[in-house]
């Protein structure tokens, strides 16, 4: 093997993910679907041109850390508090129902003689983990769809956005618990103690870092490269500490680091830098690497049936769970449908969780293909279903009555980041401090 083959591999990944990403965007689907398809086409599943090398694996690991760090930075905690109990209740039921549904499907299929798993953890933990994967909701995909429909600032859109953000936080907590239990030799009491210890450490270290970083970076009139570097150093250290010291998933540390950074004045500038880092290299490699892991020839009739049922359960449990939560919170039936459908998309969040589980022996290789199928189909179907459900509703309700005041909208953070990605902000220009 030529030692410089990695250069060609990276070039091929970047080109194919971009080309297919532009194609999927042209047909009104998120570019993440194109990146996934690129990995599937180039990998063992179809053309077998590329295989996952150590470099691709390491880059994808950094990529997932950066993605979760950015997700934390994009979470506006102050605005999230305003959504109150409604978003939390919608998210909570919208997590519990898919968790139970995913576990039930895995329980019937993940057993010797039906689908043989090569995962190292117990069957119970493997089944729970498949449920954890289904709890995820992709904020970015739903936001882009609602923006396209002009419904992001409606009451239904705000509920979807608030619930999706809390959904991700609850999913991170579930992932933290399940990954900490992956080592069967560790006592459950020790696991829970380590998790509590990590969050105590994160709170103390985060508060100290925030105070120092805010004072240091706030004295500069504009964002500087050194601010981005130190923020990235903090992200990597938090990821390392979470994984090595406390046995918690590294992406949990990255997400919390992002939440801490989101409180600073330089969030917009930092987002622009990490967007560039992620967009140019890390995200395409991560999403393509997921596709490279899938081997379709190994998908037996049982695995295909499992994939079909898992897709159906993934869709129904979100619609039922989040719709039920919305109904309990007093939303009208047409709004419950909108909220439930808006939470279907799993997107990159489910891929991140699945990738981490595969590394820790929580997800067998035979189940990765069905998970990718779930991600692709739910990502495609959400924009398709959102359009008709937002056309539903009583004729007596005008669009203006559905709109919410700007001060109550959670969409500002995502709209600003969208402007930044589209070049509508100048280099170094700061948004108003939250």
Task: Find the structural class using helix and strand composition.
Answer: mainly alpha
Helical content stands at over 70%
Largest sheet: none
Proper CATH architecture: Up-down Bundle
- Which percent range describes the beta-strand content? under 5%
CATH topology: Na+/H+ antiporter like fold
Low-confidence stretches: 395-401, 424-434
The sequence of SSEs as H and E is HHHHHHHHHHHHHHHHH
Computed over alpha carbons, the radius of gyration is 21 Å
Global mean pLDDT: 81
Structural overview:
This protein has helices at residues 5-26, 31-42, 54-73, 77-109, 123-134, 139-149, 155-180, 188-218, 225-245, 250-261, 267-293, 301-328, 333-342, 347-359, 365-391, 399-402, 412-421. It is mainly α and 434 residues long. The protein has one domain (5-421): Up-down Bundle (Na+/H+ antiporter like fold). The radius of gyration is 21 Å and the shape is globular. The model is unreliable at 395-401 and 424-434 (pLDDT under 50).
